[in-house]
Amino acid sequence: MWGRRSIARAGVAFQARPLTVRPAPLRTIHLVSRTLPTRPRLRFPALKTFTPTRHCSAEVRMMASQERETLPDVAKPINYHVSLFDLQLGGSWGYKGTLKIDLQVTRATTEIVLNSKEINVQNAEILDKDGSQLAKASGITYDKKSERVALAFSQEVAPADVVLSINFTGTMNNAMSGFYRSKYKPTGEVSADTPKEDDFHYMLSTQFESCDARRAFPCFDEPNLKSTFDFEIEVPKGQTALSNMPVLSEREGSTPGLKFVTFEKTPVMSTYLLAWAVGDFEYVEAMTERKYKGKSIPVRVYTTRGLQNQARFALECAHRTVDYFSEVFEIEYPLPKADLLAVHEFAMGAMENWGLVTYRTTAVLFDEGKSDNRYKNRIAYVVAHELAHQWFGNLVTMDWWNELWLNEGFATWVGWLAVDHFYPEWNVWSQFVAEGVQQAFHLDSLRASHPIEVPVKNALEVDQIFDHISYLKGSSVIRMLSVHLGRETFLRGVADYLKSHAYGNATTNDLWSALSKASGQDVHSFMDPWIRKIGFPVVTVAEEPGQITVKQNRFLSTGDAKPEEDETKWWIPLGIKSGPQLATVDTRALTLKSDTVPGIGEDSFYKINKDLSGFYRTNYPPPHLAKLGQSLDLLSTEDKIGLLGDASALAVSGEGTTPALLTLLEGFKNEQNYLVWSQVSASLANLRSVFSQNEKVAEGLKQFTLRLATPAAERIGWEFQPGEDYLVVQLRKLLISMACNAGHEGFVAEAKRRFDLWADGKDVNAIHTNLRSVIFGVNVSEGSRKAYDAVKAEYLRTDSVDGKEICLSALGRTKDAALVKDYLDFVFSDKVAVQDLHSGAVSLAGNSKVRHLLWGYIKENWDAVSNRLSFNNVVFERFVRMGLSKFADHQISEDIAAFFQDKDTVAYDRALVIVADNIRTNASYKERDVALVLEWLQAHGYA
To answer: For the Aminopeptidase N-like N-terminal domain, which residue ranges apply (predicted)?
Structure first.
């Protein structure tokens, strides 16, 4: 699943993503009014927490697994037959279901416990294989907290292969989880039997990861309780039904106008991967070039009627990616079809259901000529990420949720591998370093971080680890390992791992064993600390005659790691480039707390961590940092990004200085690479945010940005050329934005001119599609209510797939307090989909002039705000974390803590810890460096 916590950027598709890849970039949500269950808080282990490894005895490992809160092991599912019928397509939105589960009862029992949530079990019985009744449930009890239903039988059920038969009812909710409905406004004619209420039509689909299959039907909802599935559903004859497998047959429904659609049996898989959808669908199709069992496989992208032409780019990516991964993993795509579905209301970015991958519309639809071309990059990546899961996650599944990173970290890395294969001109590994690695660094530099592999006692805790650690740190560490082992060796080991565990479950140690065998190295020994310990190191360099000393310590953004927090000895590939042209590479690793590297000394020219392939910061002596800054032409794009990212982070922690960072930034005036400029922009944005409340420093940093960006912005200009390179398009947009936000009079005037032509209707094409975000944002920021109202009206009328996202972010740029109030009222109205609420939080949090008004609004309107957010835990967590993390004031941090002290924060308690950590970091940085920054700005003529 992608984008669950980001993106975030979900992930990592482009900077400042509203999502976040699951993740997401940039994996947002729509939810139903419901009472959220009280879920146990996720407890993150201290550094000393013991984690069983391959060296442990079987008994110790078993003890660890027994600490999990899992279903009783008296029965194991072999096959489910799920039949849904009598769907109420409007009103109550209820449905009925029958369920027959082939069970292997392993020991005598009078009770069978399944997972169930918001499902009413009407009756249950145990049948022999020939259909005769063995036992009937005499009692049905529910535990809402643990989301379970217990079926009690008056007579004992003996160990045997039996069938558990259940009749139940459920609801097609509007919470974007379980079996749910999505509203939309169609673009053309719709089938007469398409569900409709008020002004909206509806489609139906599922979202089961992590623990919401139980919300659609009673089941054994744990990843290692794999089974096959037979599925059928009764739908209107004019509607299309989809599921993991192809349609097996259709028959008449219970009443005229209805039909039962039956699907082929699935392979063995986890419950969270089962999926189905019903709607007024159309599709575009391509056949794979590779032959599978002698024939090509159909790859389709489904949309609601009228949108299928916007699915062609995703289709182009998808059919080629299926073939590419079949080759890379040395295992043919295992299903007879591959469907992708655009879902109008979707909490995350996408979900990897086997054979029926679901996506939010902006992650799969692209309207040529109307969509911002950054979405092509996003779509290519998200499509690849989810298709990678068809092998890594679906074919071979993590044994338990603590190893979520096995699914998500690998799918993130190999998703970018596929995009790089098909679009090498996009330079996506530099993008990954600029966005993915840097975001992972940021979260992992907080005390609120957690190890990549987190002990998960109760599966209901797992929502809180769909974050940048599982996705982005996980993929960064995989990238580091693949560089060390060599990509071919690494992929050979992955292929062996997949073959060995196909249709089963596996652990991190299983992957390490396969990679150790493929490489001849003990991968366990040097990778376990990266996976099972919290944080990452900073390598500090000290120069001496004829040698350098390198020392590793845990890096914290506050720069105050305590001895007990700094005990880990990481294996660190140093990747030292040296020589006049940095042409010599030393691949040694640092395995001790401190070591010396001979042959490189204080007079040498060197660069550590080649291409930022290692997941660590590097702290150079100030003279050497300056020397690197004067030799940028010798550095790779990744090296430049890493140099800037390190200098920025070290300035924040106090291990470096902000003047050193500013001096380094000055050297990038003539840079021409978009991805390097994106890191320059990110570094400056953080400086301007942290020091925004000091008027002299804020104005000085504004002037610094203006002088730095102006030559490049004026050089690239406003006009797009036909067939222009993707990265050039992105660079133009970024530089124009930087110049406008720094007050460049000419660029601001031109942005206003184009906006006025568009807003007054004189030239509807005055704003290039790739400049909507910039021009809308500048005019709302610099303009009056007229500009704000024009963008708000565009939000309400746009039919562009990315239009609402762009407008909502632009509206949050206003500096007018009255308009901020209007904006927040609008965000929390029914005009804005719940899945997009985080866009309002992100936009206002980045608006230093008025971000305090967001916090004030939350406090003053808490009942209404929490009501709207509490439809879903993911929405709530994302809004709190993204909306409150940018402050740089200890007093505000205390105010936030006091406000939430008496609230039920179970949905976002970890977000509050992250918020507190971020604010503490920002405030300490501001207090420590504000005078120093002002002094430097004045000395260099910026203030």
So the answer is: 93-273
Tell me the pLDDT tens digit for each residue of 405-445: 989 999 999 999 999 999 999 999 999 999 999 999 999 99
pLDDT tens digit sequence for 230-250? 999 999 999 999 999 999 999
Yes or no: say if 658 and 687 are a contact pair by the CB < 8 Å rule. Answer: yes
Distances (CA, A) of 122 to 132, 215, 878: 19, 15, 37
Cross-strand partners of 901:
none
Could you tell me the maximum CA-CA distance found in the chain, to the nearest angstrom? 90
Q: Are residue 769 and residue 683 in the same domain, yes or no?
A: no
Identify whether the C-beta of residue 206 lies closer than 8 Å to the C-beta of residue 253: no
Tokens (6 digits) for 391: 């092998």
The label of the residue with tokens 């989880």 reads 177
Are residues 622 and 551 part of one domain? yes
Is pLDDT above 50 for 62?
no
Domain shared by 686 and 709, yes or no: yes
Q: Is 389 annotated as a binding residue?
A: yes
Tokens of 539: 């390598």
Same domain, 689 and 831: no
Looking at the structure, do residues 560 and 674 belong to the same domain, yes or no?
Answer: no
Contacts of 797 (CB under 8 A, 6+ apart): none
pLDDT digits 0-9 by tens, 768-778? 999 999 999 99
385 annotated among ligand-binding-site residues: yes
Could you tell me if residue 11 is inside a domain?
Answer: no
Q: What is the CATH number of the domain that holds 601?
A: 2.60.40.1910
Specify whether 864 is located in the same domain as 776: no
Before 210, cis peptide (omega within 30)?
yes
822 in a domain, yes or no?
yes
Q: How far is CA 584 from CA 476, 479, 580, 605, 625, in A?
A: 24, 22, 9, 11, 19
What's the number of domains the chain is made of? Answer: 5
Q: Would you list the DSSP string of 669-706? A: TT---HHHHHHHHHHHHHHHHHTTTSHHHHHHHHHHHH
Structure tokens at 373: 């071309």
Nearest partner of 679 among 725, 632, 640, 732, judged by Cα? 640
CATH of the domain at 283: 2.60.40.1730
- 386 in active site: yes
Q: Is residue 582 part of a domain?
A: yes
pLDDT at position 46 over 50: no
pLDDT digits (tens, 9 = 90+) for 816-846: 999 999 999 999 998 998 889 989 999 999 9
Residue 219 is classified by DSSP as: B
Nearest to 272, CA basis, from 352, 209, 354, 227: 209
Same domain, 360 and 226: yes
List the catalytic residue out of 386, 453, 794, 805.
386
Outline where 691-771 has alpha helix (H).
695-716, 726-741, 745-759
CB atoms inside a 10 Å sphere around CB 128: 12
Tell me what pLDDT residue 464 has.
65
Digit-coded pLDDT (tens) for 919-930: 999 999 999 999
- The alpha carbons of the chain give a radius of gyration, in whole angstroms, of 28
Give me the domain span that covers residue 793: 745-811
Exposed (0-12), middle (13-18) or buried (19+): which is 552, by Cβ within 10 Å? Answer: buried
Find all residues with CB under 8 Å of 216, minimum gap 6, and list them. 119, 170, 178, 179, 206, 208
In the chain, what is the straight-line distance between the N-terminal and C-terminal CA atoms, in Å? 47
d(CA 484, CA 46): 29
Indicate the pTM of the whole model: 0.92
Locus of tokens 């992208």? 301
The reply to whether 174 falls in a domain is yes
Parallel/antiparallel/unpaired status of strands 396-398 and 504-506: parallel
Q: Which of 790, 811, 832 is the last residue of a domain?
A: 811
Distance CA 416, CA 23 (A): 14
852 is in an annotated binding site: no
Same domain, 738 and 887: no
Q: Is the pLDDT of residue 59 over 70?
A: no
Residue 741 token pair: 């936000």
pLDDT of residue 76: 97
